[in-house]
Amino acid sequence: MTKRILVTNDDGVLSPGLLALAQEMRKLGDVTIMAPDRNWSGGGHVKTLDRALRVREFRLEDGSQAFASDGAPSDCVALATLGYFKEKFDIVVSGINFGANLGHDVTYSGTVTAAMEAVIAGIPGVAVSLEIPEGHGNATDFSASTYAARVAVENVIAHGLPEDTLLNVNIPFLKKEEIKGFRVTRQGLRVYHSRLDERVDPRNRPYYWIGGDAPTGVPEAGTDVGALAEGFISISPLQLDLTAYRALSDVSTWEWK
Amino acid sequence: MTKRILVTNDDGVLSPGLLALAQEMRKLGDVTIMAPDRNWSGGGHVKTLDRALRVREFRLEDGSQAFASDGAPSDCVALATLGYFKEKFDIVVSGINFGANLGHDVTYSGTVTAAMEAVIAGIPGVAVSLEIPEGHGNATDFSASTYAARVAVENVIAHGLPEDTLLNVNIPFLKKEEIKGFRVTRQGLRVYHSRLDERVDPRNRPYYWIGGDAPTGVPEAGTDVGALAEGFISISPLQLDLTAYRALSDVSTWEWK
After folding, report:
1. What angle do CA A225, A20, A173 make, to 5 degrees?
2. Residues A242, A244, A248: CA angle, nearest 5 degrees
């Protein structure tokens, strides 16, 4: 049976990464696009309850129909799965994000939290992100990313995903023919270099940017960060159960009264 | 040495839950308050990078000084730990939230993601949330919650927390003397009853609320949901490593090319 694929992202409905992903997904099934009407990077796992959401229709560059909401990526998935569309979706694919989502990025990432929202709705979710080195913000070569997305989604269609699990796919900034292959990885360690940047406005009032250099990571073998550093596409199964199981018995010995 | 405690929340700087928490934490150390200037419930793990943040000073009901930013709870923690204040904090405590944060709530929750942000900054984080049954939105009895917060924070001060770990504390809606005790738990299963509620504005344009009944949960023994259902305070150690370790070997056997 034809698969119904919902495509979303966090860079906004007009991002070329979304278009490239939607075109690739059309090889695998019927594609519906519902994405934010603006960039939501770093927006986290949002459930908008204090205001209503609007939906507008867009045409993408290739003429295809897309829907855009003024909510977060996870709101787009909620809208789409709670009944904005009549169809039920078989899989939700989010991306192609401009910038990798590695290590601790995952709970901030609109790309990943859109896939989380899918999983909470009982639908397999796949997040796809392309590493973008500083100064390459206008990258347009999505050939490695669309390849990675297709292989990942084909696998999810073939095998399913364990309950409560999503796939976090990250692609190194390489031409498709330079990619060394795939690595199934665990979440690695991001190193943030954030710095507070205080400025003063024309009325002499201070304001604060979260600034500093772009995050780096610890390229340990077996991790998402390590795979990308070696030229591999990283596939990390992530779960929504955040229980620190290894800490449970220790914390249980503390005095609780 | 006197502990330096940062208190934040996601209901906003003027929430009585924040005041109750700050007053209780003063028994354990020096308290600094930096919280959002408005309600951020369901706002997720935000890192605001596309705009600057403002900070205003407030006086709480008891006359104590508080700082409020126009960012998310996690932005407040970032501001506080990246240098808005000169001091380094020993612990970040977030709450007391109006409403439990159980099961899948944790990645949406501003209360919990504030504690996540602390952990990413290398500081122990504790999130404290009070179950609020429907129709009790004006609850003012924080005695069980402040008790739970104090015991949890004392324990964290005494024992530390494993790296990459935070404590998610949830309190049932009971008087302090009715509380049966503490349970160290794993993250349970939330059941959401969201429904899309389409309306039409005075200009005949549709808009959409994420509506439906309040979430419930599966009160399984050993879980946060189960503990609250039985009248216990729930203490769940959570980690920021979302790797689905049990899925790794299975996903590795898929065809990756």
Report:
1. 30
2. 135
* Residuewise pLDDT in 10s, chain A (257 residues): 899 999 999 999 999 999 999 999 999 999 999 999 999 888 899 999 999 999 999 999 999 999 999 999 999 999 999 999 999 999 999 999 999 999 999 999 999 999 999 999 999 999 999 999 988 878 789 999 999 999 999 999 999 999 999 999 999 999 999 999 999 999 999 999 999 999 999 999 999 999 999 999 999 999 999 999 999 999 999 999 999 999 999 999 999 98
Beta bridge partners of B239: B165
For each of the domains in chain A, give its residue range(s) and CATH number, in order of start.
3-187+219-252 (3.40.1210.10)
A239 within 8 A of A164, measured Cβ to Cβ: yes
Nearest alpha carbon to residue A170 among A191, A158, A186: A186
CB B235 within 8 A of CB B183: yes
Distant-in-sequence, close-in-space partners of B27: CB < 8 Å, separation ≥ 6: B150
CA dihedral of B107, B109, B112, B113, whole degrees rounded to 10: 70
List, as ranges, residues 45-104 from A with C-beta within 8 Å of B: 45-50, 52-55, 69, 72, 74-75, 78-79, 82-84, 104
What six digits make up the tokens of B212?
Answer: 């439906």
Cβ distance of B53 and A208 shorter than 8 Å: yes
Determine contact, residues B169/B184, Cβ cutoff 8 Å.
no
Helices B143-159, B16-25: axis angle to 10 degrees equals: 40
Tell me the C-alpha distance between A52 and A153, whole Å.
Answer: 32
Of A84, A207, A242, the CB nearest to B242: A242
Q: For residues A104, A105, A106 and A112, what is the CA-based torsion angle, rounded to 10 degrees?
A: -170
Interface residue B157 vs chain A (CB under 8 A): no
* Residues of chain A neighbouring B195 (CB-CB closer than 8 A): 82-83
The length of chain B is: 257
Alpha-carbon distance B65 to A74, whole Å? Answer: 36
Angle at B105 between CA B70 and CA A86, to 5 degrees: 100
Helix, strand or coil for residue B219?
A: coil
Measure CB to CB from residue A79 to each of B52, B208, B239 and give the nearest one. B208
Q: Which residue of A has its CA nearest to B207?
A: A54
Residues 218-237, chain A, touching B (beta carbon < 8 A): 235-237
Q: How far is A4 from chain B (nearest CA, A)?
A: 20
For chain B, strand residue ranges (E) read 3-8, 29-36, 55-59, 65-69, 91-98, 125-130, 165-171, 181-184, 189-200, 206-218, 232-239
Beta strands A189-200; A206-218: pairing state: antiparallel
Residue B88: DSSP 8-state = P
